[in-house]
Amino acid sequence: MALPKDPRQKMINIMYLVLTAMLALNVSAEILNAFNIVNDSIITSNASITSKNAITYDQFTKQMSNDPGKVGPLKEKADQVKAISSEMFVYIDTLKATIIREAGGLTEDGEIKSKDNLDAPTRVMENQKKGAELEKKLTELRAKLLSFVDSKVAADFEKSLPLRIEVGKSHGGHGPKNATWTSYHFNMVPTVAAVTILSKFQNDVKNSESSIVDYLFKQIGANEFKFDKIKPFVSLNSKNLMEGQELVAQVAVGAYSSTVNPEIVVNGSAVTATDGLGSYKMNVSGLGEKTLSGTVTLKRPNGETETFPFNEPYTVGASTTSISADKMNVLYIGLQNPISISAAGVPAEQVAASINNGTITKTGAGKFSVTVTKPGTATIGVVANGKSMAGKEFRIKYIPDPVLKVGMSKGPFMKAAEFKVQGGLRADLEDFLFEGVRYEVVSYRIGIDAKGKDYAEGEANSAYFPNSVMPVIRSLRAGDIVYFDNIRVKGPDGRVRDMSNVNFKIN
C-alpha cells in the first residue's frame, strides 16, 4: 500500500516536480526537451507497469482452476479494475491527441511540432471544459477503485493510492490563490508540458490499478482458517425431497487429511471412504421431517480412536418448482429470452407459466420464450398440474453497449495498410451470451489529421466511410490520426444509442 519504490519511478516523480516548477521561468528549448525526456520515461514506466499487471491478471486466471469458488468473486473485481483503468488510460490518450492536434500536430519523426504552444492546452482543457471533465472522471475512478478494498484498510488506501485529485500551490507561488484544478495544471502551459502532465496522470492510474489488483490477489489466501479441531460434516444433495427420490449424503471430517480414511457409519450401515470422503445413498419414503444419523471414527497418531456422532435433518415433502434462465438470471429487452421451467413430479406438458411485466410463450415441453420491453424486474409465475407454484423474480436489462471497431481493431493503433482496406465502422457485441445479436451503425462523423495535408472530415449516415474522405483514407501514412465522434448505433431492441468517441493512430 506504499507508493512505488522503484528507483526509476522515483526519479520520474522528482523530474516531473522540478520541471513543473520551472514553468514559471522562461521556457527554453532545453526545458521543452527535458519534458520530452520525462514524458518518454513515464511512457516506458507505464508499459512496464502494464506488463506487471498483466502477470497478476494471468495469475488470477490460473488460480481459478484451483479454487473457482474463492477466486471467482475476486477475479470479477480485478476484471472490473482492469476495465475502468484501461478506459481512463485510453480517454487520457485522446486528450493528449486533441491537444497535439490543436497545437499543429506531429512532425514526420513523430515529435510535437509546437512544443511551446501555450494556447492549445488552455483552449482544450479550459475553454472546451475537458479539464473539468477529466477531473470529474479521475475523481470517480479514484472512488471506484477505493470501493474494491475492505473498509478495514480503506483509510490506508485513501492515503497511499497514487491517483490523487487536488490543487497544490501555484507554480512559483505567483498564480491565483483560488486556482481551479484545471487552471493549476493546464492554464498557459506549453503543449509538451501538458502532454507530460497527462502522461503522469496515466502513470497514476496504472500505479493505482496495480495497487488495487495486488491487494485483491492477496485476498485469495488472506482469510484461510487454521484448524486445530476435528468435526464431522454431512452434505446432502437436498434437504427437501419427494417420496421415491434418491437422497445422496457425503460425509467427511473437517481439517482431516485425504490420505487417511475414517470409519463411517450412516443409519447403521458402514460406508467405505475414499480420499477421506464417504458417500451414502438411499431412496427416501414417507412425508415429513427425517434425520440422517451416524458416526465418524478417526485414529489419532498415537493409535487411540475417537468417535464423532452426527445428525443431519432433511424433509420429504410435496412437489417443488424449478425455474432457471437458460442464459443467466437476467431478461434482455428486445430479445427472445429462453426459459426452462419444471415442477418435480409433474410432466413438463402440464406446466404453464405467466409473467407480470412482459409476454411469455411456450415453445416446447418445459420450454418458454420471454419478451420484455422496459427495465426493472419481472416475476414469472408457474401453474403445474392445475396448482399455483412458487414463482421467481428476474432482472430486466438493456442489451450491453457494443465495441466500436475498424476491421478487427479496437484501436488506439492500427496499421495503415489494414485501415485502407476497410469499408467502414463496426459495432460488435463482445462476450455476450446470446448468439447472433447485432448492432447497426446509424451515423457518425469522421475526421482525419494527415501529416502535410489539410484536416479532412465527413458525415456518414451508415457504417460505411463517406466518399468525401475515401481519397484521404487511401493515402494514410504512419503518424496520421483518424477521429470518430458523434457515433450513434442501433441495437436489436430498436434503441438508438450515443457512443463514446474513438481514435485510431496509424502506424
TrEMBL record:
<dbReference type="Pfam" id="PF12080">
    <property type="entry name" value="GldM_4th"/>
</dbReference>
<dbReference type="InterPro" id="IPR022720">
    <property type="entry name" value="Motility-assoc_prot_GldM_N"/>
</dbReference>
<dbReference type="Pfam" id="PF12081">
    <property type="entry name" value="GldM_1st"/>
</dbReference>
<dbReference type="InterPro" id="IPR019859">
    <property type="entry name" value="Motility-assoc_prot_GldM"/>
</dbReference>
<feature type="domain" description="Gliding motility-associated protein GldM C-terminal">
    <location>
        <begin position="400"/>
        <end position="507"/>
    </location>
</feature>
<dbReference type="InterPro" id="IPR022719">
    <property type="entry name" value="Motility-assoc_prot_GldM_C"/>
</dbReference>
<feature type="domain" description="Gliding motility-associated protein GldM second immunoglobulin-like">
    <location>
        <begin position="322"/>
        <end position="397"/>
    </location>
</feature>
<feature type="domain" description="Gliding motility-associated protein GldM N-terminal">
    <location>
        <begin position="30"/>
        <end position="218"/>
    </location>
</feature>
<feature type="domain" description="Gliding motility-associated protein GldM first immunoglobulin-like">
    <location>
        <begin position="222"/>
        <end position="317"/>
    </location>
</feature>
<protein>
    <submittedName>
        <fullName>Gliding motility protein GldM</fullName>
    </submittedName>
</protein>
<dbReference type="InterPro" id="IPR048406">
    <property type="entry name" value="GldM_Ig-like-2"/>
</dbReference>
<dbReference type="Pfam" id="PF21601">
    <property type="entry name" value="GldM_2nd"/>
</dbReference>
<dbReference type="Pfam" id="PF21602">
    <property type="entry name" value="GldM_3rd"/>
</dbReference>
<dbReference type="InterPro" id="IPR048405">
    <property type="entry name" value="GldM_Ig-like-1"/>
</dbReference>
